[in-house]
Specification:
3 domains, five-stranded mixed β-sheet, rod-shaped, transmembrane helix
């Protein structure tokens, strides 16, 4: 059902809604243009991999140990060692079933240090125990290599160097299992990483303990940097709501509100009130309003003449809900009245 409003009020409402809509839309666009771009890192787990070096020490015949061998991490007497059996294991377990390529090699390095407690390296010598090998597979891959380490060979080398060159230092033999992996994921890209489990064996010592990072286990995480646009969401939501309310208001005004025409009577009244505002008094008290002894004049100009002759103000009152409006003059003997409906 259509509602009615006077045309001036409807026009004012349209202007108000339209103004707020334009203003809010401008602020909304400004808020959207004030966005900034930041980079975030997305992490995707594509699997896990693990590299391990394990060993068994073989002893020479000796009066101390029969068949028993000291456990891993315990002290070994250097003169009793025949050799060391070393196992190198690597496992990659993928989550996506993509191509996996692993490059690995086994190396040994002798590193000599000063004996001043700061462990500053003096010299080193490297050995390639097994050259680089590449293995490929789908999804998962396992590698197992075995080597026998002749410890006496390295002890003899260090002893000869220290005696010949009169160097007062300590030396370690570092066994490295060098592993580089490349795993392909069709969605998230390529995972590349390198790990190097190792064993550290002191050389030229009467006894020693084998230490080092024997086991390295890691999750395989692909990190992708993506740009993310950040906007002032609170402002955008607020101004969007304002724009929506204004558009809805305009929609209702245009479709469901009918502009009511201003009556000729009201046009006349408004014209008179605007033109003769200083001479007219609007009253609310109707006690004095009576047509008895009243003279009805033909036009408002005639009422102006009577007002000038009598020196009386023109009074104004709205009657019967705007259906008629009276302008009149009260005097001692006669009242002069002009009704807008019949007043020129």
């Amino acid at each position: 059902m259509a509602m009615e409003l006077s045309k001036p009020i409807k026009l004012r409402l349209i202007i108000i809604f339209l103004g707020f809509s334009i203003f809010s839309s401008t602020l909304l666009v400004y808020s959207l243009l004030q966005r900034k771009t930041v980079e975030i890192t997305e992490k995707k787990d594509v699997g896990n991999h693990k590299g391990i070096i394990s060993y068994d020490v073989n002893l020479k015949p000796n009066p101390i140990y029969n068949s028993e061998i000291p456990n891993s991490g315990e002290k070994y007497i250097t003169g009793m060692i025949e050799n060391i059996n070393m196992n190198f294991d690597y496992n990659f377990t993928g989550n996506t079933g993509g191509d996996v390529a692993v490059d690995y090699s086994i190396s040994a390095t002798i590193e000599a240090y000063e004996q001043n407690g700061e462990k500053e390296r003096l010299w080193s010598k490297s050995y390639l125990l097994e050259p680089k090998v590449r293995e490929k597979s789908k999804g998962n891959i396992s590698i197992n290599r075995k080597l026998i380490l002749e410890l006496e060979k390295y002890n003899s080398f260090v002893k000869n160097v220290l005696e010949e060159y009169k160097i007062n230092s300590k030396a370690n033999l570092i066994i490295n299992f060098n592993i580089s992996v490349e795993a392909h994921d069709s969605v998230n890209g390529i995972y590349r990483n390198s790990i190097a489990p190792n064993l550290i064996i002191p050389l030229s010592e009467d006894y020693f303990v084998i230490t080092g990072d024997k086991e390295i286990k890691e999750n395989c995480i692909i990190e992708n940097i993506k740009p993310v646009v950040i906007i002032k969401s609170n402002q955008v939501i607020f101004f969007s709501i304002i724009v929506g309310i204004c558009v809805l208001g305009l929609f209702i005004l245009f479709l469901y509100v009918r502009g009511k025409e201003t009556s000729e009577q009201n046009k006349k009244v408004q014209y008179i009130l605007r033109k003769y505002n200083m001479r007219i008094v609007n009253i609310c008290d109707e006690r004095y309003l009576t047509l008895d002894n009243s003279i009805r004049v033909h036009s408002f100009d005639d009422l102006l003449k009577a007002s000038d002759e009598l020196g009386k103000p023109i009074l104004y009152n709205i009657l019967d809900n705007d259906k008629s409006s009276n302008f009149f003059i009260l005097s001692e003997n006669k009242n002069f009245i002009c009704t807008v409906t019949d007043c020129n």
